[in-house]
Every structure is written in structure tokens, then in C-alpha cells.
Amino acid sequence: MTRSNPANQPSDAPLREPIAETTHSSQLIQGFPSSGRLAGIDFGSVRVGLALCDPSQTWVTPLAIYERRSKPLDGDYLARLAGQEQLVGWVVGLPLHCSGEESQKSTEARHFARWLGERTALPVALFDERFTTAEARRLLNQTALSANKRRQRLDGMAAHLILSHFLGARGSGASSSAPLDDATG
Residue 7: inside a domain, yes or no? Predict the structure, then answer.
């Protein structure tokens, strides 16, 4: 079943635990941590962009691009990341069509989110990621980075935007803490 979902609003489609969701941007996701470090994920079948927020959920910064290998290795990496960064939850981007309808990628992201919650024993929220890649590309194009470096950072910037928009929708007012440029351009 597909549902319409306004841009940058947490998805309200039913999922079993540990996936947490909300129906209104001003409503906190029931049981989802309102403090502590969260990781944002721009899900892909080849690469996963990752971003982190600080424990007060105020600042967000891109972390890494993880090249997917296999389910066991991916699970080990993400579980290790959760422990090292003392994460309290995950926010996974939910790719939707412009109309709000779900796609095959939406189904894949939902399966990934469910697997991630089971693998790490942390709550997972799905968040509408429409236009985040385009926004990330636009922001990166405004930098002095080379085209190759912009491509390398795209998924991490998309994860950053997913987590920032999620926290903003919850009223956390997250903002960026990392410059988009670097000296090596």
C-alpha cells in the first residue's frame, strides 16, 4: 500500500518495531530518542551515505560514504559504527516519487531500515528524502571542490540533509557544522 507524504515529512506508513515513525512534523516520534547521537543514512544498493548529529541533536555533519559489500560485512560495519559513535538511533531516507507514491527503492529502503534496526538493536525512523540528492548536488556545485570531489561527497551530503531535515521537522533546529569546501578542492 502506498501513501501520499508531503516533502520532508516523516513517513506514516505502518511498520513493525523497531521502526519508529510519525504523522506530523511537530509530533515527536513515540519512543524515538530526542537526545543522543543519531546517524542519518542515504540508502543505496551500492553506497550508503552517512551523517551524524551531536548528542544534543543540534549539529549535523557528513561522516562517510560506505561502499556496500555483503549483508554480514555491512551489518558488522554499521553495528561497529553504532558502538563507536554511541548512537541512539538511525534516520533512513525513504525515497518517494514526487507524487508521494512509493517505489521499488522505497521498498528496499524499508527492508534495509527493518534489517538495520534488528541488526543494531537501535530504533530506526524513515524520513521522506525527496529532493535531497538534488539539493545536495546544488550545494556542492556552489563550492570550489573539483567535480570528482563533489561526486565523492554527494551521498554523504544527502545523508546530512536527510538528518538535518528530520531534526528540523522534529523541532530540534539542527544545522550544519562542516564546511562544504576543503583546501584540497
Answer: no
